[in-house]
Records
---
Amino acid sequence: MKHENKKILYIVIAILVIFGVLYGLYSYAGQEAFIRTTLSGLTLGSLFFLVAAGLTLIFGLMDVLNFAHGSMFMLGAYAGWQFYTNPTFIFGVLPLVLAFVAGIMVIPLIKPELVRLKLSDSWQKRLPKLLYLAGLIVGVLAVLKFDIAGLAETAMVAIVTTSTGALAELSPQEPLLRFMWRPVLLFISGALVAAGVSKPGDRAEITAPEPLKNRLVLPIILLVLTILFTFVRESASELVLLMNGNLRFALAVIVATLFGFLLGALIEITMIRPLYIRPFFIVLMTLGLSFVLRELVQVLWDPLAYQMVRPPLFAQPGRASTIAEWLANGSSTISIAGVTFPTYRLFVILLGVVMFIFVTLLMTKSRLGMIIRAGVQDPQMVEALGINVKRVFTIVFALGVALAALGGIGAAPFLPVQPMMGDQYQMQGFITVVIGGMGSYVGAFAGAMILGMARAFGDYFALKLQLSPTIAEASTVIIMIIVLLLRPQGLFGKKD
Amino acid sequence: MKNIWKKDKGFVIFVALAFAFPFIFSLLGQTSLTEGTNKFWQGQLINFFIMAVFAMSYDLLIGYAGMLSFGHAASFGGGAYTVALLLEHVAPDILKSYQIFIGSTNITEIVILIVCFLAAILVSILIGLLFSASAMRVKGAYFAMLTLALATALNLLARATDFVEWTGADEGMHGVPVPLWINPTQNRLTFYFIALAFLVLAYILMKRIVSSPTGRVIQATRENEDRARMIGYNPVTYRTLAFVIASVFAGLAGGFYALWTTSASPSMTSGVTTVNVLIMTILGGMGTLVGPLLGAGIMQIFSQFLYTWFGARWPLVFGIIFVLIVMFLPYGIVGTWRLQGFKIKQGWQRLLELTKTKETPEK
């Protein structure tokens, strides 16, 4: 049989199987239970997709298995929750992070000169490590005696915003005169670390010649932002808290995503890039990182579970019968074909689908997506064609982490926000990636939906047949093993 | 014996010290052999011995066979659960009906304990085969994820409420009736020496396996699978073998751990256990047997002191140390020492030569 015909045959069989299974479940469970379970499955599937999309892109492009992805999911939830309930912490720390990133971004400016430095072999080996260590030491000095725990505690003071805008008292930030030198030191620290990573004196390094103007844009923007946020630390958080709840939530989603993007870029540049020559250690690195991040969160916010308040659009008790009614009243549940379903979960489904469309457009229509697809095929060739693959690596890693963080903030209003919240999603993300095929975002979407459905219907059957909910959790592993035995490269994966 | 002394001076000295430790401690501190701080430190060392075997078995996998498995806790927990289940649910019935004594020793209890460990070996072989059968076809990241998923499945099984009468579900089993003569609370000194003997035996056996022709082939498949196949060795067979051997040692360590804690809980099969043992192995140095031993020791000591210094959040400090080690000392302590030791020796020699050349012009 011809290749094309075979493909069509497979697709037809797959569609028939899917419809057969769905019809079987429908006739078994009855309409109401079927719709409710399907919707819960889609909610879970959306979250799985947000985690798995990043994992699969990162793996496909740079062969990095990111074990810290679950932690990123969790951090996204924490960042969004912080911003939504009390942004004092975020605005207190933001100048520091921005200063560090700005410091890192300054180095590409002088990289051609750095690479051309004349250094003896032994210094070439020693200098990066020394610079890196110096950067770390300066970084530690910069945050010495910084009352980060005090800042973190502000979120635990629940803040009630009423319609009149009455606020709980805002915690004061550190006085500007003392705070000022911290961003400066962190800027230096970032520059030192980045200088260490950029291999000074190594002439084999490729530096893409770019006009100075283009190279200057990013560091200058970051520097301006740093200075700006250093001055508005208190007023900004007040401004945010006075906002309308829905707007604040929308901003929180954006902030969490951007935070994920920044964090991803930071991690890739400072910690993963030096290890590309030893791929085995990248896995260990990310594993250690997830360990550290999880503990760090527990240090800052205690090992407790927090419940984020749902934004007003999803909070009013009552059932809406149409979408227009929901949008007008902000009801917490909506009736879909006679089934009562929480509106917030509908929003999560929407988030997942929109992100899938976004990723699809990005990958198929944009230049970056083209480079990523080419990079998945053959990174060396792409580099040989004069594309700065390192930067693409950074962007993809940051993008993946941003998606995970988006999933985290999406999940925060209906899952308890706690340090271990990402672990389960990371596990399911791995399984999704294996089912869908590494490097394929379509596979990640299909796999995520299959897993979400399996979990939801597993829970349904466990309840109905009085089994333990373990069945639902185990079903995903069983599906993965079946897929691997039938198609080791995954549903949408390409054969090696 | 002579051979071991030549090759492993450090290990022999370590064993001698560990053997003498309770006696020296009681002499120095004027404390009794079986009570107080002496008993406490014996407990710490017992934990260390067991974890060291677990870490060494993990190193067989990742260091020698080059398979990054994230499911090693499955074997450990499998062994622990086997021993605990048999002791809790089967042993009392047998002991009720048969009791054979020779002199004052209860033969039945000893036989039951041996059977428990044989069962643990059997279970861990089965787990190893199951993992290999499903994961051996894939490599690298797929392998890591698959083993992780399989171990998660086992963890789910341990936590399942369906078997709550047997396994205690989330709670696990506690207060497993361990025979009195080996019970770590009453007869800790006996248990101490048994655990030490277990460590020594496991070390010698693993050393033997690693340096046997089979072990060499396993290392060859790590270095270059295609070449190993070209020479006529089937890499899948050898990797399966390595996996099963590692699984057996992990299962035995798990069995001992169950005896030592008189419990078996789902956390023994969880990813955290794997990560702990991974940290020990990386800390000490992959691809050596002494490395994981050292790593386990350091972790044991660190967890004690860091806990007193930093409170409940000590893993943060530990995690940072781990990240730094991965970045700056990728071969671990022992690996770096072996790499740099040569240079240090060279440096010494150069220094000696310098002093010599300074003396010669005066002649």
---
Amino acid sequence: MSDTLIELLREEAERRSAETFSAPSPADVRRAAGRRRRATVGAGASMVVLIGAGVAVASVSDRVSRPAAEPTPSVASDPEAAAKQKAKSLLDAVALPPGAAEVPVAPTRRLQHPSMTFGRPWDRVVREARFWTVAGDIDAITDYFRSSVQHGVASEGGGDVREPGVASSDIFFGDLLITVARVDGTTVGIRADAQIPWTPARLPSERVPDDISSIEIRYYVGSVEAPLALRSVSGAEAQHLAGLVNALPIVVMQGGAIRGLCMGGLLQTRLTFISDTATFIITWPGQCGSSAVTIDGRPQPMLRVSDELRHAVEALLSRPTQTP
Amino acid sequence: MDAQQERDFDDYVRARGQALMKLSFYLVGDRQLAEDVCQSALVRLYRAWPRVARVESLDAYTRRVVVNEAHRWWRRPSSRETARAQVPDTSVPTDTAIEVRDELWRLLLSLPRRQRAVLVLRYLEELSEQETAMALGCSVGTVKSTGSKALARLRAAAAPQLGGVE
């Protein structure tokens, strides 16, 4: 039943939102930002306030520990190991307020999850977290972190939530995110998240073969055998496209889906690289960021399609067909 | 914010403004209010922009800001009554399917704000449970239980209209 319910709801949502919305323009937003900044001066902490970058940069406290040096991965050839090492180094070097004591788990539900996650959608991300508690007032602890320097980085902004029953703050320092939340009337919990993105390298065997002779480009709906447009390119054009495809990063699936990347659409673009060694095929739907790849029919890691590749293919497809 | 960041912000607003408006509309159910919510969210995004470029998914981050803004609106004393009063009668139902969908939309707007937000994010925006949890600042378990309750509530309320729909 729920499926039917949801389908009906989706249909109605689409119907009601079919008409184009008048979204605010960037200029509108800037004007409103100017107005609201003036209006909220002195308004206290009774509302959510996103703190702009640089607010605390000029007031680094004397209490701050010496900034830790940027860790240097000793395993540079292994990007995942390097990312793990960097995450550990960042967490080991968190400059904490006096009296902070590490605890093994989140001291409050508010700190059970990172308040924000870093990394591009196609990255793999090493995420490590540590927790502490400290006696004090949440505003004082928030101020401490805002005026601190973590791994050589001053606060880059963040946000506060001050509502009845909820008090927490996020403070960003490069790859490190500090979240503080009130545990009770006298204790504040601290969560430090180190989130280090890394992208797996593509293996040589996953690349377009060196000896390609031509590339067939098909633009189609439904059947690849009945394309709306068909082009064949060779020589320098083929090598250029091969280079663009070889430069694509691997898409990393997160939570079993790559949501947010795909704009959908039934139109498909397929490039078939023809060579004596192997047949490399890459296909992507519509404006989707991800693509399916096969080599001699064997599935390969999905690749994130670049705008450069997309534009190059569109240019080739839009070129008038030569008549014999 | 430097010139490049200003340009990036402009590009983002131009590219995603419509989608954010749509989300705002789903959350508050009224176009004019959706414009307010969306603009407030973009103002917050603008102020945070210099470090937002680092965020994993800008859309995920912005969705969270939009949901927070919608929540702020919902907290206003008269907001929910206003939402119901302003559900537009955009058409005179002419067949059962339209009637049912129309009623479902009204029921969606009458749900408690968190339940509505879960349904909007999970089923209209098609986010994963994890993404929904991030947008709402709660656990995946809460998303599951809230979504389940919301669907049950919707199902019960819609039963007379849905009849035999399963």
